[in-house]
Amino acid sequence: MSFQLSGKAPETYEQxxxxxxxxxxxxxxxxxxxxxxxxxxxxxxxxxxVTTRLARQAVGHGGxxxxxxxxxxxxxxxxxxxxxxxxxxxQSDVVDTALPSGTYDVVLSQHGYHYFPDQAAALTxxxxxxxxxxxxxxxxxxxxxxYTRALCTALAAHISPDxxxxxxxxxxxxxxxxxxxxxxxxxxxxxxxxxxxxSIAVPLATEFVPLHLSSMPIAGAFLGLxxxxxxxxxxxxxxxxxxxxxxxRIVYPDxxxxxxxxx
Length: 263
What we know:
By secondary structure, this protein is an alpha/beta fold. The protein has ten helices and eight strands. Helix 1 (9-33) packs across helix 2 (50-59), helix 5 (146-158) runs antiparallel to helix 6 (161-168) and helix 5 (146-158) packs antiparallel against helix 10 (227-240).
C-alpha cells in the first residue's frame, strides 16, 4: 500500500485536508506525546509537515526536528510552508534511513504506519534510531468514518470497485491487539494503544467531495468523470450523510488509534 501525490495534489491536501482533518489530529497526537524543550524528534511520513511544524514549536530552540517522507511533492510543500523554521527534511524510505543510531528521543508518525510496505522492518529501524528510553507514537485510523464509508460506496457505484478499494484501503488498518503485538515484537516496552476521538465538521458534499478527491491519489479517476457523473457521485454521498448535516456542515465522529512504546 502506498500514498503518493503528484501535480498540485500536495498543495490541495495542505489547503483542504490539513485544516479539516490532519491538523486537528496532529494536535491530539502531540498533546498525548507531550514533547519537552530540547527533545530530538523524527516525524515519519510527515507529508506536508503539519505535525513536524507543531513539534518544532514544542521542542524550542534547544530541540531538533526532522521530517521524513518518501514523496518529493509532499516534502516540497513542507519546505515551502516551514521556510522560516529550523527543520531538517529528509526524502527516504522508512526502513533504511541511513541516519545514525540513537539520534532521536521521540519518533512520531501520523497516519503513516499502515502504508509502510514492511512494517516490522520500519519498527526495527525506528527502534535503532531512538535513544535508550526514547519514545514512539504512531497514529493511524481506527477504521472508517461515516463520511469515508459513504464516499467509498459512491466511488464503487460511479467509477469502479477497484478505485473504491484504493480509497477504502487507507482506512483498513490493523486491530489494536495486532498493533500492540507489532511493537512488542520489535523490542518496545510499556506498549499501549490509545484510542482518540474527534467530532469532524466539513463543508457540505457539493463543496467538500471535489476538494477531498482532488487531494487524493485517485484524483485523476474522479476528475476524469464528466460533470454529470461527478454530480451523481456527490449526490450519493450527500444522501448517505443527510442525518449528519448541521446547518452548512457535515458533522460526524471519527477515531484514531495511537501506538505508544518505549525503547
